[in-house]
Write the structure tokens for this entry.
Amino acid sequence: MKFAEQPPSKHWAALKFRGEKFAEVWFKPEGEPRGVTFRIPQQSFQIPGMAEQLTIANLLRAVAIVPDEVESWRHGDAAPSGMHGALPPPPQHVSHLEIHVRLKQPSAGVARIENGESEISSAKWQDLENRWKAILGLEAGVETWRISMESLLVEMESLWKKPLTIEEKTYAPRADVAQWNKAKNRVHNALPKMKEFIHRSVWAIGSPERKRLEELYNDHIQPHIPFPQIDEVLKQLEELRKDRQVLSAHGKTVYQECRGIATELQGTLRTLQTNTANAQKKKGATGSKGRHF
């Protein structure tokens, strides 16, 4: 987003390095439409290797402002001219080092270009947000299938390991026993599919690429803080959205298939149990009749 299109801040936005906040930024403080304020907490200067990186040039780079756009900058009463030297830490009794940056007024030609692109840029921010929210919605569906799958997996493993009793083997017609064995083989083949989906759904949420995009959304997209390679991120979000669509559809297919197999196995087991009960009842009735005569 061009600086001219950046709305005035309503709260401090975090700047992060390797997932750790090191500074905050406020765009266009009241009465300073060309101003940017950074504040760096005292503890950031204590992070190993961080103090050397705390320069005006790096702070500007973090919010997509090039040094040539800067008219002046200062911290406290000091107004240095260089931008690449390490900033001094604040005094021990001061919690933050505040840096105030004033940008140059854009030329008339640049201003017209910025104004002409403002609508497109706003739409692009909206597109970024919509794609991330679509990903979250799909991931919620994947999580639902995962939870259902884990419950069904326990049920199917229990059925698969269940042996037939001696009575069920004795009184069951061969066709019913054959159907039972066939259904158990289907369970045996289905279990790896279920475990594979559960593994994929867990890995997907914790993948490094997904975590990086989540941080980018929280740190830049949601608060509308500019960052480089927006078009590339749009592409990555779209790829992630399609991946989640495929994963969700796969989870639905596997669950429905395995639910059907479990239902078939349960039905076959009930048939075996019913046949056993009927045969035992019939045998008992025959025995009673013989004793009567």
Remarks:
- Helices lie at 56-62, 108-161, 166-171, 174-206, 208-221, 230-292.
